[in-house]
Design brief:
heterodimer; A: mainly alpha; 4-stranded antiparallel beta sheet; B: globular
């Protein structure tokens, strides 16, 4: 008998890593289940849950599923796992032979509700901090007064600050509703909830019972006001973030156009299709890498950036050399011819890749989101904003500090003079067009992460990007930047009031009217040129 | 200037009108009088299709009036066309009466579906044909007038104008997609029953609609032709070729532009109104910016600044579209259309008709040439600046 107890002890040490003293306490706790009395079983559940014993969850879950038995002879308690194996509850050791005369531990509705509460609060003690935090959040939402003891016990043991905070808030949520809690505790609770400051906190404070002391009510009213202000502020910040994100997409789509339309005066209706080509390049590169067994989509995206620039840029140069150069000086004809090219490109892609959306994977470092204060930031949007800034800066640097940029600016300012100085203007035209188209290809790489990669991808952006360029002022990249951001912001700030469609219509009408007032955009190039 | 025997219409226009007159009489006859088995019988479907082409032709003539003669490249004429169509569609919806699915005598089905209890104020009077007919012209005309008033007075020209006309039709498309607008939302209006008491589906009604479309096209052509051959037309052409000079000479350029833009929009609205009963549906996709650009290519293919050419171009391109998209070649239609845009702008700047007239031996005798825009000094030519317009 002694030897057997020693072995069991050892086993329990191995299996449960529990201390001998604990195991002894556990045996007592378990023994309380060996009864027919529902009230005693109920008390046993609560006591076991409150003990924080590692086996508590297993045993209580077994009870809920009616897999818990007791031996009336020696009052020992046995549970079966889901596979049907039997274990001694007091030690956790597997039993090879079942004693005869086992009786199931019975449950009624009262016990069942205790079991549910116990299981809820038990996860408060789970080893995984994420689970503990979720449990605390669940208690915060349910505000079940019976969980108060459990949460206080858990709070006392908790080490992780984030989880500790969640538990504190859960405790505060319960205390706020509890009429017999001391006033000081409730005031402290209001303070904690006020710090939390989100929508849940607001509804919690609104739900404080009317019979609460005056001091608590006043504190709650103050907290509600503070939270509402805070929420309004964060909503505005979140909107600004969305606007920034939309603005960066618009900027990416429009900046290539700003080069071709602004710098060269060429209307490229096929610009959207250059974006589409960039997106399809991304798809092809990912596809090829997948066929060669690589799953590193981040690398695929890194490769897609230069590849898309080259593909779209070369397509642009071909279009310029093949069609547009014959149409210089006839902008309206250029518009029609490039529209035709856009139709051809769309159909070519539709024939080659099919009319349906193609799947482009988002690399792991770009998926997911994090909270910053009261707003949520998705990583792919953040990446696109950074990418847009990088493209804009790079383009400015190229135009300002390279020999090619110098020549481009010279041709823009005075074509004949530049030509007289020995600049091969038609090569500059071709390269500039290629640059603008290549940037559109870069935009395609970014858009493939947030939009459907389909042959119609470019169509959705062409009107918007033209409006951005025209609004910002032709021939001015900074104007394009400001126009893209303000249109993105305006769109997102109009949406809550007017709805997405009406907001968009309002914006279109505004831009139409704006162009009446300033036909050359926000930042028109100053000069004495007669509008020919 | 004028080819004496044909008045202001000219031999080409006279031939065009004669063809139209013949079609207006013979096609309905071939549909109604000849038995179905006859070799010369024209099916109702074919007649409606031809009627659709003629509506497009009228639209193209309207577009040619502003683009070919005044240099205003509107990429939003689809909006005027669709507004006319909607005005007609509203009349046709009201004619359904209690025969709709919900049997409501005063509300169209889609309003019953949205739980509306009474007709919105802007539907007032659309059960009366004269009101609807007036609105067919007034709605697009008013929009064009207001839009043109703002745009032309601010001297928005060239591609800027093209882009904001495109933004206009895009905004309208978005607006008409909304159910709250009271124009049937996404589905638009369809399932028409009667027009002026005649059943829309009946052969005789279709034949009459065809004839009316021919007459409207002929009338629209005559109106535009009269405009462009008048003194006003000369000012328009001058504006197209050198807007600043015309302004320096003391003409109020914007007034001419607003006037001709409004007339053009009214004609486009009329085309839309004739289109709807023959096609049987009107929905917001008619406002799609792509449609409006496609209209421009009809004019370019036929030859801008010729009016007859615009009509021919619309018929040709749309006939080709029907041929392509109904067969196994459907996939290649966009290649063909896109190619057409490129080829016409590169190699046929005067369009089919312009190129043909260059080839004709009568060329020397016909000073009509001068009404066509020359490719070289078109709009704001970078390669072809006037000394007085240099910086």
């Amino acid at each position: 008998m002694r030897i057997r107890a020693c072995i069991l002890l050892l086993l329990s040490l191995l299996v449960l890593e529990g201390s001998p003293a604990r195991a002894a306490g556990r045996a007592e706790l378990m023994a309380r289940f060996a009864t027919e009395n529902f009230n005693e079983i109920d008390a046993a559940v609560t006591a076991l849950a409150a003990s924080g014993d590692e086996a508590a969850q297993t045993v209580i879950a077994a009870l809920a599923d009616r897999r818990l038995f007791y031996n009336p002879a020696d009052k020992s308690v046995i549970y079966k796992d889901e596979a049907g194996k039997s274990f001694a509850a007091a030690t956790g050791a597997e039993l090879a032979v079942l004693p005869s005369g086992l009786k199931p531990v019975r449950i009624n509705n009262k016990v069942r509700s205790s079991i549910e509460a116990a299981l809820g609060s038990l996860t408060l003690l789970a080893p995984d901090p994420g689970k503990r935090r979720n449990a605390a959040e669940a208690v915060f939402k349910s505000r079940d007064p019976s969980a108060l003891t459990a949460i206080e016990a858990a709070l006392a043991k908790e080490q992780d600050p984030a989880v500790k905070r969640a538990m504190g808030e859960a405790r505060a949520a319960i205390l706020l509703q509890k009429a017999d809690a001391p006033e000081a505790q409730r005031l402290e609770a209001v303070r904690l909830i006020r710090e939390r400051g989100d929508q849940d906190a607001l509804s919690l404070l609104h739900a404080i019972p009317a019979d609460a002391p005056v001091a608590v009510e006043e504190a709650a009213t103050g907290a509600i006001g503070a939270i509402e202000n805070r929420l309004a502020l964060w909503a505005a910040v979140q909107n600004a973030w969305y606007g920034l994100s939309l603005g960066s997409v618009l900027l990416l789509a429009a900046i290539g156009l700003a080069v071709t339309f602004g710098v060269m005066g060429v209307i490229n209706m096929a610009h959207g299709e250059m974006v589409m080509l960039g997106a399809y390049t991304t798809f092809v590169i990912q596809d090829v890498m997948r066929q060669h067994g690589s799953t590193n989509m981040g690398l695929a995206l890194a490769l897609a950036v230069p590849a898309a620039f080259l593909v779209s840029g070369l397509a642009g140069i071909v279009i310029e050399r093949g069609v547009i150069r014959f149409l210089y000086g006839r902008p309206l004809e250029t518009l029609l011819a490039t529209w035709g090219i856009s139709l051809i490109l769309q159909q070519a892609v539709r024939t080659g890749f099919g009319p349906t959306n193609r799947e482009v994977d988002t690399p792991t470092f770009m998926s997911g989101a994090f909270d910053l204060g009261g707003m949520q930031i998705t990583l792919n949007r953040l990446a696109i904003i950074l990418f847009a800034i990088a493209v804009f800066v790079a383009l400015q640097l190229v135009l300002r500090f390279t020999s090619f940029g110098l020549r481009t600016r010279a041709v823009t300012q005075n074509r004949r003079m530049a030509s007289s100085m020995g600049i091969r203007t038609n090569w500059i035209d071709a390269l500039t067009f290629g640059l603008g188209s290549g940037i559109a290809g870069l935009a395609g790489v970014a858009l493939s992460q947030i939009d459907n990669v389909s042959p119609n991808l470019g169509q959705g952006y062409i009107i918007d990007s033209f409006l951005v360029v025209v609004f910002g002022g032709v021939g001015n990249l900074w104007g394009t930047l400001i126009a893209a951001l303000s249109i993105g912001m305006a769109n997102k700030f109009l949406e809550p009031f007017a709805g997405a469609v009406l907001g968009k219509i309002a914006l279109l009408v505004f831009i139409i009217l704006f162009i009446q007032k300033r036909p050359r955009g926000l930042f028109a190039l100053k000069g004495r040129a007669v509008e020919v | 200037m004028r080819a004496s025997s044909f008045g202001f219409v000219g031999p080409l226009g006279a031939g065009f009108l004669a063809l139209l007159a013949i079609a207006a009489i013979l096609v309905p006859l071939a549909n109604l009088a000849l038995p179905v088995g006859s070799a010369l019988h024209v099916s109702t479907a074919a007649m409606s299709l031809a009627g659709k082409y003629l509506c497009y032709a009228l639209l193209a003539v309207a577009l040619d009036l502003v683009w070919g003669y005044c240099g205003i490249l509107s990429l939003g004429h689809g909006a005027f066309f669709a507004l006319g169509g909607y005005a007609m569609g509203m009349y046709l919806m009201r004619q359904i009466g209690s025969r709709g699915v919900y049997g409501n005598p005063s509300l169209p089905d889609f309003m019953v579906f949205l739980n509306w209890t009474k007709l919105p104020w802007y539907w007032t009077g659309f059960d009366l044909f004269p009101v609807a007919a007036l609105m067919v012209l007034v709605a697009p005309g008013l929009l064009a007038f207001v839009f043109g008033w703002f745009a032309f007075r601010s001297r928005v020209t060239g591609v800027y104008l093209s882009i904001i006309t495109q933004a206009m039709t895009y905004a309208l498309q978005l607006a008409f997609f909304r159910n709250d607008m009271g124009f049937g939302g996404n589905n638009g209006m369809t399932d028409f029953k009667d027009v002026l008491g005649f059943p829309v589906q009946a052969d005789a009604t279709r034949a009459a609609l065809f004839t009316i479309t021919c007459v409207a096209l002929g009338g629209g052509y005559l109106l535009c032709r009269a405009l462009v051959t008048s003194k006003l037309g000369k000012v328009l052409i001058a504006i197209r070729d050198a807007e600043s000079r015309v302004r320096f000479l003391g003409y109020r350029v914007e007034n001419y532009k607003v006037f001709v833009f409004t007339i053009s929009a009214c004609l486009a609205g009329l085309a839309g109104a004739l289109y709807v009963p023959q096609i049987g549906i009107i929905n917001p996709s008619e406002f799609a910016p792509g449609n409006s650009i496609e209209m421009v290519i009809w004019v370019a293919v036929g030859g801008r600044g010729t009016l007859v050419g615009a009509a021919l171009g619309a018929i040709l391109v749309n006939y080709a579209k029907t041929l392509f998209t109904s067969g196994a070649m459907a996939e290649y239609w966009l290649f063909a259309l896109g190619g057409l845009f490129v080829v016409v702008t590169l190699f046929l700047p005067k369009g089919v008709l312009g190129a043909a007239m260059d080839w004709l031996p009568t060329r020397r005798a016909a000073p009509r040439e001068r009404t066509q825009p020359s490719a070289a000094r078109d709009d704001d030519g970078r390669g072809n600046l006037d000394p007085c317009e240099l910086t």
